[in-house]
Q: What sequence folds into this?
């Protein structure tokens, strides 16, 4: 991440500096010589993941594992590399003051598109597809993953097949990062569907990405093939298979025996790190990610409306034992929802201390008295709830058992209710049907720290139809700070707003932060090109540049 610019940096300078990268398609470099240009793709890569991708329209609500597939199938205007640099993809260049892509006040945008791009079915990609994508996101009733930034777009004008303009209702500082995470969808296919929400496209997607759809076997795998019409450098791999193995022990074993070539999201648990590092002909990496593991509370549940309950649960959480004993000290404990690499990370938040005595006093003072079975009660409510996460994730299950014991000791009953990934992270999570959830979540947008999708009251999907505020957290002060932070283009001013948001969230505790993830991933030693990237939600972001030697 870059250092913050000094206070008072002019709007012109900031907008000019925001655009990183020039015209042309940029790809990460590898320590090994890549195949020569024009070399036909060969071989296949089997990607082992523990959660099953199930949502294939990238505009709809989805989880992290789906995005690995999107990055293979679809293209954004520009992507983002591990250093936070924007890399042109469907856009010919990153819009900036210098190239006329963004006006000085941040309100006028002009996007120039790469010519000659075609969808997987051979239909030309044009500015009409861009207009359709943004209009669809903003269509009332369409369940968009996010409308942050998009809802401010006005007067989209298609100038030519490779150029369009629009106006913003107000400046929106994170929009370059939002657009880096927005995959474009085909107008000619989706507009022809009578029901775009349930269109056949959603089960057989067509994109402009380096790979194209072949098949999906539910519960087992997804197969993609190299796109011979890809606008960028041709993929080096002929086929990519996303293989779903929910049991982490089985997944690790398949990595050891060679049945999978890359073990990705949630693949290697911390208790197996030392063992996996001894596997011959394997390269294993402990990569920091932008995910923060926390206990997400459903703030609409009556018991969690009492701040004394939230604070007592946090005080009684033996976070240190979970990190040290279950995760072998690999992740870093945190008090924030932002990753420590973020330029807006607040280092001044108070550190949690495991203090059961204080937790009991908080509940006593708030009127929660021991009842039947030692479970506290107040006004006819029992201090009891379920906690859910992915079934079969034994490391999280061990953490749940620690917390269950922690909270039992202060008179709180937590029942473990784990579910298969497709169920856990479907409507149960997205529509806030859980009591509490153990989840690893990215709160920012790529390299931008704006958490509006997760913390704004306008982003509660069960109430507004978009966003990812599944905790159903609503705080007017936070809403105001987020609005101000996104409407100013001065990074230092934004930083101060985000510091305050983190302070309020730490004080109010709509979620109980535990640690920032370290993802233990691995490849076969002769598979090259893998690069961890803290700015994306899947390290399959550059799979088109992977290759065998």
A:
């Amino acid at each position: 991440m870059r250092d913050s610019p000094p206070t008072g940096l002019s709007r012109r300078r900031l907008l000019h500096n925001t655009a990183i990268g020039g015209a042309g398609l940029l790809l990460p470099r590898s320590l090994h010589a890549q195949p020569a240009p024009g070399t036909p793709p060969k071989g296949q890569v089997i990607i082992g993941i523990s959660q099953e991708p199930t949502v294939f329209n990238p505009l709809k609500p989805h989880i992290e594992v789906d995005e690995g597939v999107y990055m293979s199938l679809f293209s954004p205007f520009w992507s983002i590399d591990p250093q936070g640099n924007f890399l042109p993809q469907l856009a010919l260049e990153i819009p900036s003051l210098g190239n006329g892509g963004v006006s000085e006040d941040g309100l006028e945008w002009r996007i120039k598109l790469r010519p000659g791009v075609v969808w997987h079915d051979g239909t030309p990609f044009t500015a009409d597809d861009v207009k359709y994508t943004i209009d669809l996101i903003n269509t009332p009733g369409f369940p968009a993953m996010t409308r942050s930034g998009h809802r401010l777009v006005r007067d989209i004008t298609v100038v030519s097949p490779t150029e369009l303009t629009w106006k913003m209702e107000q400046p929106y500082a994170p929009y370059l990062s939002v657009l880096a995470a927005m995959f474009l969808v085909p107008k000619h296919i989706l507009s022809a569907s009578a029901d775009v929400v349930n269109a056949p496209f959603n089960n057989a997607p067509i994109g402009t990405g380096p790979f194209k759809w072949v098949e999906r076997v539910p519960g087992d795998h997804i197969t993609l093939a190299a796109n011979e019409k890809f606008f960028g450098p041709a993929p080096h791999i002929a086929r990519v298979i996303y293989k779903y193995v929910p049991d982490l022990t089985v997944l690790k074993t398949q990595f050891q025996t060679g049945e999978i070539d890359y073990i990705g999201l949630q693949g290697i648990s911390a208790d197996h790190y030392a063992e996996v590092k001894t596997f011959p002909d394997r390269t294993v990496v402990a990569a920091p990610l932008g995910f923060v593991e926390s206990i997400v509370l459903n703030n609409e549940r009556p018991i969690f409306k009492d701040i004394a309950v939230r604070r007592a649960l946090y005080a009684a959480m033996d976070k240190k034992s979970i990190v040290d004993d279950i995760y072998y000290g690999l992740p870093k404990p945190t008090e924030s929802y932002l990753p420590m690499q973020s330029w807006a990370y607040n280092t001044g938040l108070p550190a949690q201390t495991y203090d059961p005595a204080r937790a009991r006093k908080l509940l006593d003072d708030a009127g929660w008295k021991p009842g039947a079975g030692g479970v506290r009660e107040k006004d006819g409510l029992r201090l009891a709830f379920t906690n859910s996460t992915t079934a079969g994730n034994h490391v999280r299950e061990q953490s749940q058992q620690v917390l269950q014991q922690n909270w039992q000791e202060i008179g709180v009953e937590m029942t473990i209710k784990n579910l298969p990934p497709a169920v856990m992270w479907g409507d149960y999570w997205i529509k806030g049907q859980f009591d509490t959830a153990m989840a690893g979540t990215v709160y920012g947008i790529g390299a931008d720290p704006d958490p509006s999708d997760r913390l704004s009251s306008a982003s509660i999907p069960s109430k507004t139809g978009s966003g990812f505020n599944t905790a159903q957290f609503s705080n007017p002060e936070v809403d105001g700070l987020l609005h101000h932070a996104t409407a100013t283009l001065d990074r230092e001013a934004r930083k101060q707003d985000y510091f305050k948001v983190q302070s309020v969230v730490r004080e109010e505790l709509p979620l109980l932060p535990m640690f920032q993830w370290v993802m233990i991933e691995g490849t076969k030693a002769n598979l090259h090109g893998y690069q961890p990237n803290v700015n994306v939600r899947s390290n399959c972001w550059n799979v088109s540049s992977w290759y065998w030697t």
Confidence is low (pLDDT under 50) at residues 1-30. The longest strand covers residues 282-297.
